[in-house]
Specification:
10 strands, 6-stranded antiparallel sheet, alpha+beta, 179 residues, globular, Immunoglobulin-like
Length: 179
């Protein structure tokens, strides 16, 4: 019994250390807009500065969770948008931007994706967006691996992208605890 308790304590300490590490990496941030009265917990400038160069190789994951007020009232009153951002010489996903996921190797259903794009000097910036609920975000954060496919291009999310999602979830829980 003592051995089981000891192993449980080790596991708990390891999970707490991992949560602290994820928050210390500053991959997500909380911003309150006093003009609109809305709070956004989203990918941080630090995260984006690390990832933006990778968006020329393949789409990168960006996420934002929004709610009214400084403190969230419940998980039901949040809007969450998952965005895949890429920079290309020409349009890759303008006409076809179907999005498919594998969570830990198994198909995972998400809502239909939308596309936005902008012509820039030397190429285009494309975003493929989906809106999800809090339960779906929680499921994504529980995954060991997340793979996605846009059009014919397949990717595995990097550890930093998974950590960014976990950071958003953790910051939401911290904000919600301030009630």
């Amino acid at each position: 019994m003592k051995r089981i308790l000891f192993l449980f304590m080790i596991l708990t300490l390891s999970l707490v250390a991992q949560e602290i590490r994820v928050l210390e990496e500053n991959l997500a941030e909380v911003k309150f807009d006093r003009f609109t009265g809305k709070t956004v917990i989203g990918s941080s400038k630090h995260y984006l500065s690390k990832m933006v160069r990778l968006a020329y190789e393949r789409p990168i994951l960006v996420c934002a969770l929004e709610y009214s007020g400084k403190i969230p009232k419940s998980e039901l009153n949040v809007t969450i948008q998952i965005v895949f951002l890429s920079f290309n010489k020409d349009w890759q996903y303008l006409e076809r931007h179907d999005l498919y996921y594998l969570k830990d190797g198994e198909p995972f259903k998400l809502p239909a994706a939308a596309h936005k794009g902008k012509v820039m000097s030397g190429g285009v910036r494309e975003t493929v967006l989906i809106n999800i609920d809090f339960g779906t975000l929680r499921e994504l954060c529980e995954a060991e691996t997340l793979e996605f496919k846009i059009r014919l291009t397949e990717f595995i999310l990097r550890e930093i992208e998974l950590d960014m999602l976990a950071s958003i979830m953790q910051l939401f829980e911290i904000e919600a605890a301030k009630k």
